[in-house]
Fold this protein.
Amino acid sequence: MHYHTGKRTLEEGEVYRPDILAVVDVTIDSLSTDLRVLSLDIHDHPEIKFEERYAHDAYTSFLEKCGFEVTRHHFLETAWVATYTHGKGGRVLGVNSEMDALPGIGHACGHNLIGIAGVVVACAAKAAMELLNIDGKVVLLGTPAEEGGYGKVKLWEKGAYKEMDVCLMCHPGPGPLHSFSLSNYLAVIRLEIEYKGYAAHAASSPWEGRNALDASVLAYANISLLRQQIKPTHRVHGIIEGHDWAPNIIPDNSKMYYYIRAPTTAEAEETLKRVVPCFEAAALATGTTVKVTREHTGNELVQNEVLGDELSNVIRKKYGYIDYVYGTATVSTDFGNISYRMPGLHPDFSIPTVPGGGNHTPAFTKSARSQAAHDATLTVSKALACVGMRVITDGEFLQQVKDAFEEQMKNKA
């Protein structure tokens, strides 16, 4: 495995409430062995979107043993919530743990690491509230189906986030060791395109058919040509499927699934206007019919500036450095939709990877179970827990967070 050597000298200076930092450090270090076992257990039992039953049971059992009040099957079959309250009143810290894997290649996006990060941030916040007698509440939400199922959006619509003042989570990616990124993710619009034609014998009477596969191939080519005319920060990509095809039958059906990504939701909407005619033109040229169905829209990730500045301060003084280059800035996440609706923070953290072995590759699946990846997960979790505890303990800081959210959202779609 290739290890980047990104260690830099830490900045001098104190962070907010060193007493909280001390509790966070000790708590997370003390849980490292148990969390490693949990992470590998999840990694060894990959489950795709909305099928995370093993992970659901593993996380909820672990959190009950840690003293949280746990609700299983929270709004969705494989979602769950774990809460802890100290004192009366107080502010509410929200945290997310993802669970789902990718079809065929397992935890190639490191959701086993994201899952334990959420757990240990919540555990550290709980310990700090207990030991330092701080009033507040932590809500850890187990969110299924990030990979294409928009689990967080479904949970938002059902009210799962309504208590939270802010929500925090993190995500692994390639990059130098000891590096953390606050780059933004892309907005995404997802489409399903269905062509209907007319079947015929491909040799004896092909002229009687209307080839739905030709329509998809032509649309694919149209979009490939369109890419030259769209901005380099935009992405348009998809696949072709069909059923009951045979070489000697003119295909009467085909289906395409396409993603349109851009730095903002508004930009994705503009590119959508140019992509849809590519599908329509293909139907016209082949004599088929087309139905374009717009599925989910994922908003770009809005990193709350005040939360991000606080995270950067903690990391630069205690754990490593922040950049805006590495990470997974050209992908998308359903947490983007949450960050459109409430203050949120979603830093990336780097784990050792092999060349060409970034997210969504079999090599990243292997990287996500390494000891170095585990250690990096605990480090970013310490910083996130410190940020979360400032939300709970510093009312003026929380107001700045909320003001920043309102300001950042003024020009959003």
